[in-house]
UniProtKB/TrEMBL annotation:
The keyword Ligase does not apply. The gene is secG. This is Protein-export membrane protein SecG. The chain crosses the membrane at residues 55-74. Belongs to the SecG family. It comes from Saccharopolyspora rosea. It is found in: Cell membrane. PANTHER family: PROTEIN-EXPORT MEMBRANE PROTEIN SECG. Keywords: Cell membrane, Membrane, Protein transport, Translocation, Transmembrane, Transmembrane helix, Transport.
Length: 77
C-alpha cells in the first residue's frame, strides 16, 4: 500500500506541476521577466480556464490525501 501511495504521489506531483504551468499568468510576477507581461489581459475567464482550475484543485486534493495516507502508514508502521 505504501508503494502504491508513493507512486501515486510522484505521478500526481508531476501532473500538478504541469497543470500549474498551463495556467495563464494573471500578475506581473516572474512571467513578466520572460515576456509574459506583454500579453493583453482579457476580462473574465473562459470555460477552459475554469475546467483547468477544477482539475488542478482535484489533483491537489488527491495529492493531499496521498500525503496524509503515507504519513499515517509511516506512523502506524
Amino acid at each position: 500500500m505504501t508503494l502504491f501511495l508513493q507512486i501515486m504521489l510522484i505521478v500526481l506531483s508531476v501532473l500538478l506541476v504541469l497543470l500549474v504551468l498551463l495556467h495563464r499568468a494573471k500578475g506581473g510576477g516572474l512571467s513578466s521577466l520572460f515576456g509574459g507581461g506583454m500579453q493583453s489581459s482579457l476580462a473574465g475567464s473562459s470555460v477552459a480556464e475554469k475546467n483547468l482550475d477544477r482539475m488542478t484543485l482535484f489533483v491537489i486534493a488527491l495529492w493531499v490525501i496521498c500525503i496524509i495516507g503515507i504519513g499515517l502508514l509511516i506512523k502506524l508502521g
